[in-house]
Amino acid sequence: MTMSPTTKPPAESLTLTIDGKDVSCRSGQTILDVARENDIDIPTLCQLDGLTTWGGCRLCLVEIAGSSKLFASCATQCTEGMNITTQSDRLLNYRRMILEMLFSERNHICAVCVSNGHCELQSMAQKLGVTHIHLPYRYPKLTVDSSQDRFRLDHNRCILCSRCVRVCGEIEGAHTKDLKGRGIKTFVINDLDQPWADAKSCTTCGKCVHVCPVGALTERGTAVSEMAKRRAFLPYLTSMREH
Amino acid sequence: MTPEDLHGTVLKQQAKHGNYQHVFNVCMESGCVSCNSAAVVEALEAEVKKRGLQKTVCIKRVGCLCSCAQGPMVALDKGDTLYKAVTAADAPAMLDALDKGGRVEHLDFSSKQPFFSRQLKVVREHAGYFDPEDLDDSIRVGAYEALRKAVTEMTPTEVITEIANSGLRGRGGAGFPTGLKWSTVAKNPSTPKYVVCNGDEGDPGAFMDRSMMEGDPHRLIEGMAIAAYATGANRGFIYVRAEYPLAVKRLTRAINQATRTGLLGSRIFDTKFAFEIELRLGAGAFVCGEETSLLSSIEGQRGLPRPRPPFPANSGLFGKPTLINNVETYANIPTIINKSAAWFSSIGTAKSKGTKIFAISGKVHNTGLIEVPMGIPLRDIIFDIGGGIPGGKKFKAVQTGGPSGGCIPESQLDIPVDYESLMSVGSIMGSGGLIVMDETSNMVDVARFFMEFCMSESCGKCVPCRVGTYHMHEILQRIYDRQGTPQDLALLQELCDMVKNTSLCGLGQTAPNPVLSTLRYFKDEYTNLIHSTPTTEVLP
Q: What is the extent of the structural domain holding A211?
């Protein structure tokens, strides 16, 4: 990303097929980039333009002809002649299951959530037609960190997409946020797992709040459905990384 | 060190050894050390001193002598006489027996039994008969001869061709052709390049790599140095789990010895080739055995896998071309260079060449470490080498490949041990753990155990593995507790398929394997538990 134009390898243009549509792209572009350029919708949750690729939500998996494996379109670069399928019964099934897993993992109670109506998890579930969760809910007992003056971290709503961790480290440069533990016991933390108010490195810029796709990071003083994220600055994330 | 120095050391050590009439090789690996083999060594040394035999009898601290469950093990001379469960008090009797030319009856352990005679030692050719902490003694049995040959007589391309022709495949489990991997790294023009050794052996019941690192650390260093020469790397990292303190100690010592004598560093064997090795310790995460997580961990980051491609051969450690192989893979290299690719590829089957080390454990007579040629039937390993099932019990299944592998039933035991055959019966070669189970084991419980392992070792990065392993474990627990329903079984199968196909790294992609293989061969055990579900009490 930070390479100067002189050291960049000569960009090659490629042609490939996505969902039966012939498209062109430059070498180095990901399948997701090219699909979006061509108005082909691939669902994502952890991906955000301007942040490094994470590849954790697995919603953007696509099929590539000639391979039995599935590929995360956010992390896979296009090659010449690739034949990609982004929508199939199998993929839809897996995507729904991933959303069901997220809903069952923690306590996502839309009716009392400040992000109700402005939540990417909620709208993704509506879009993909998730009407029932056939996995048992875990109902874990989780804490809410309200120590900070302006923001709140509610672990009950977190889907561990790590957007907040990446924006804090890569864009703001503070690296206040990180992850602790592993597996089902993974949590977002501030500094050395301190209350947010005690996290000295936090600049209270609020980027983490506004990139959070769900109601895990919110502004204080918001009631049900009031927490609309302000994403106007998001397009600038990409250009910020260029310098 | 120059090639002449190496040759001189060999001659000097062989001459010194020629003076000994007898050598007692006492195992000083983790297994035997835990049953106090250190006391045996000390007692033997004291007794030799008392009798004034220092010039004719040598007491050697050596690597694994295979029969780990019978420790402490002692081998006399070339191993024709083996003693098991030796204590310090047995020292005088062992020395007395030397004079009489006989053996100590109550310690005698037949070296003629199939457990020893059916093994083929290639990687472990000298293991157990030299002191791994002594560089000169390692050189006496041939250490660094292959490195000398590679850097002074062969070009990097010739080395790669030799490895490719040998047919060696990665011993970490997946079986990727080693020569191909090396040439991919070699062909990448970007520099610097790195050579990494994966010593993060985490499968339950597996200890082959530990034994290699404790029993022959110089062979590993030599293998890595040859790899570095072939691929054009100048720096190497050995990633060892901190749970192996003895391996860490011996590797540290070996790296220091090699660096001090110029076998590592600049101008190796008086050539332009320079190579150094650093040791990195794991912090107890199983997922760091996955190559991209391991590289993140070496970089000082959280041990999380990255999406592949790009593969480490193109963008690995610090974004540079990186060769990453398992301990046993590197340990095979010196033998191939010394004895030629043709010799190596004469061992094994059409697609799987050479030998494989297995750690055999569980419900079997002989537990320990075995090295067998590829293609040997699984049945021979369990009933011949392993000596069958103790207590007159019936064999039920053998688990290979750890949490990523599967359970193989009696009906499939005649398959040859190679990568493809094991895959065809729903398991994998894996790193080499073999856990034998008898009729008392419940296969649902086995699947539940491995799923619990995967659940607690999942890194939490991707949703299917993080949440999927949790749900699969819950369902297995429910079925095992006789609370399961037929719907649970259907959901379990659906989850297996989904987690296998959508997870980010190998851990998640293979986590359902123990469930899938037990469902394939032992489905009745699941249905029996479901149908014996206690119904709710009927009121009178």
A: 109-242
